[in-house]
Amino acid sequence: MGYEFKDGLEFAKQLDKLDKLHHVREYFYLNEGEIYMDGNSLGLSSKEAEKALLNVFNVWRKEAIKIWGVENGRYFNFSKNISEKLKNLINADVDEIIIMGSITTNIHQALATFYKPIKEKCKIIVDELNFPTDIYATKSIIELKGYKVEDVLIEIKSRDGRTISEEDIISKMDDDVALILLPSVLYRSAQLLDMELLTREAHKHGIIIGWDLAHSIGSVPHDFKKIDPDFAVWCSYKYLNAGPGATAGMYINRKHFNKSAGLKGWFGNKDESQFLLSHDFDQDKDANGWLLGTHNMFSMAPLDGVLNIFNEVGIENIRAKSLHITAYLMYLIDNKLSKYGYSIGNPREDHRRGGHICLEHDEAYRISLALRDNKVIPDYREPNVIRLAPVALYVSYEETYHLVEILEKIVRDKEFEKYSLKRVTVL
């Protein structure tokens, strides 16, 4: 889409006045004087999340064990209740969604269920740019199934070190491939893969395909009715803003409800027989059959609360602003920062990028340190990437403009030179 932008602070302020989501900032806790650009890694806390967490605590304080039966079993079925609020973000049925675990444990659950290798069909396709935990989990399952990783795992190579070609993925979809696991949005470069195309091609070859939505859910709308993936996993602490380590989620396509869960736990048992405490697993008839242990109530409650904001605002409106404000940031980078050695490493087309910008510079690490001392919170990824996420729900155009001014000052005045190249644990 073509965008028309102008330089200058007054234009940024005008964009804020025209922004239909600008008032949503008031729902979040913002630190005065700080520009938060790291929502792609950990979203900000909201008043709705806080209220929901305190409410669960107070119900527990008052009811103790009776918490499981109050409000018509709301908390005993907390996953179902939250799934009802989340379903519009991926256009799936509520009974295809569960809220549990972490991305890593949910990948283990999905692969334990869907990876059924035989000699003629045992390979798994991943990409070399995916986040490490996806690969760790995949290799773990391969080994647990008795195969050697080097014999089974196909890693799609990147042509440019930033992105993955859909053509290259499709070219490896041979009859010996049993399963594919890919990210919807690449964490480093913000590339948005063509999920519908790749899923359709995988199914032509009888291949199970699943998606990691960590860097897209809450920022990019997905239509699972149309895409038709076999499974998906996601975390809730990035664009969903549910808090550090918040309970993750999982999607199981209803066409697989007849499958046996690879990992079984007592909350995957049917409600009506769960407390009969039989040692014979009576699997629930839908995605809830993949649940494991008792719900982590305090980890789920903030997600329950913050999803009220998403349902009020609408994921399509969130995506529209996200595309516009990231396009604005790219415009400013091109026009104000390129002469200082900055460049953009993410795809520029709307349909090919997620919600963050991949800003590259030879001194990216030290610039990231300098940004924090200038009250800007980005994150850094090796070897030369500053990830910047002007999250639609709480970042303003004026803040985005000031961010670029600060990036200019740090290099122009050589502020970065006073920082060490020694890596710290989290940045």
From TrEMBL:
Binding residue positions for pyridoxal 5'-phosphate: I103, T104, F131, P132, T133, D134, D212, H215, Y237, W266, T294
Q: Where are the transmembrane segments?
A: none
UniProt superkingdom:
Bacteria
Q: Does the keyword Nucleotidyltransferase apply?
A: no
Q: Which GO terms describe its molecular function?
A: kynureninase activity
Q: Which UniProt keywords apply?
A: Hydrolase, Pyridine nucleotide biosynthesis, Pyridoxal phosphate
Please give the name of this protein. Kynureninase
User: What lineage is on file?
Assistant: Bacteria, Bacillati, Bacillota, Clostridia, Peptostreptococcales
